[in-house]
Amino acid sequence: MWSGDAPTCEGEMLCLFVFTQFCDMLFFLAVIPTVCPDLPTPTNGESVGYNNMGTMNNRPVGAVATYTCADGYMLNGEATRTCQSTGMWDGSEPSCDCE
To answer: Is the pTM of this model over 0.85?
Structure first.
């Protein structure tokens, strides 16, 4: 039987725990910073740019992605998306439509 308070995560981290077969022992495996997945470049778009918090290999909570379109196309939708603590980007992917 489990005794004590349930484990919790603090801050912008994903905590991984494993419970043993005895249920009264908790082993801490790792604390992994939350990051968002890479965003695809829209058709007729330029590469997605990230602010100084985010790079192509590291997009932590709070990183902002900015979309731009190729010459002759205009952005349809929000130009920026922000990495959330859930590990997902807010909003939806915009498109680049012919002007």
So the answer is: no
